[in-house]
Amino acid sequence: MKKLRAASPIWHAVVWILAYVLIVNVGDWISAIIGVPNSATAPLVLLLSIVLFLYVTRNGWARYYGLIALRRDQFQRTLLYIPLVVLALLQFTLGLRADLDVRAVLLTVLLMLGVGFAEELVFRGFLFRGILSESTLPRAIIISGLTFGVGHLVNLARGYSGAEQIVQIAVAIVLGVVLAMLFAVSGTIVPLIAFHALFNISGDLSAANSDREGLILAATIVISAGYAAYLAVVLRKHGAHPMSA
C-alpha cells in the first residue's frame, strides 16, 4: 500500500474505500445470518479503523491526513463548529425509536464510531489529499464531496428504499463538501470524525416522522449551504490554506 500511495495517491484512496465497502457488506451479511443487526458489522468496522490508525501513525502520516489537535485560531475560523453541532442534534428532535434496547443502542454507537473514523480518514484524508496532490483545492473539495455522496449507494444493500437513497446521497454530497472545506480551513479531521459519528448515531436512533423529516432535511441543506459560503470566504481571505503545509 505504501508503494501504491507513492505512485498514485488517488488510487491508494480508492483501494481503501473499496476495502471499507467490502468490510461493511461482509459485516452486514454475517449480521443477517446471526440475526442481530450490526452484530458483526460493528466489530469489523472498528477493527478496520484500528488498522487504518496504525497504518497512518506508524508511517508518520498523522499530521498530513489531519489526525491532529485543533489549533485555537483555526477553531475560531470554523465558527466553533457550531453549525455541525446543530446538524448532529437536529435529528434527535424526532424522538427515539420505540424498538430500541441497550444492545441495539450499543451496537449502533460502536458501529458509527468506527464509520465516522474510517470514512473521514479515507474520504477527507486519503481521497481529498490524493486529489489535492494532483489538482486544485476547489476540485479536491467538489470531487471528494461528490464521491462521498455517491459512495452511499452501498446502502441499497442495507434495505434503504430508492427515495431514501436519493435523499441520503444528496445530503451526503452537501455534507461531504462542507467537511472537505473544514479540513482545508483547519487541517484536522478529528472534529469531523466526532460530528460524523454523532450525526449517524442520531439518524439511526431517531424515530421516523415523514412530516418533520422534510423540515429537518430542508434545515440541513440551508445550514450546510450557509456554512459552506462562510468557509469559502475564510479560504479566500487567508489565501494559503493549511493544506499547503
Question: Can you tell me about this structure?
Answer:
- The protein starts with a helix and ends in a 7-residue tail after the last helix.
- The chain has 10 helices and no strands.
- Helix 2 packs antiparallel against helix 6 (102-134) and helix 6 packs across helix 9 (190-205).
- The protein has 245 residues and is an all-alpha fold.
- The chain has one domain.
- It is globular and about 45 Å long.
Q: How are the secondary structure elements laid out?
A:
Blueprint: H1 2-7, H2 9-34, H3 41-58, H4 72-77, H5 82-90, H6 102-134, H7 137-150, H8 162-186, H9 190-205, H10 210-238
Helix pairs in contact: 2-3, 2-6, 3-6, 5-9, 5-10, 6-7, 6-9, 7-8, 8-10
Briefly say what this structure is.
With 245 residues, the protein is mostly helical. Helix content is 74%, strand content 0%.
Task: Report the mean per-residue pLDDT as an integer.
Answer: 90
Tell me the distance between the termini.
Answer: 23 Å
Describe the biggest sheet? none
H-E order: HHHHHHHHHH
Number of strands: 0
The structural domain count equals 1
Provide the gyration radius in Å.
18 Å
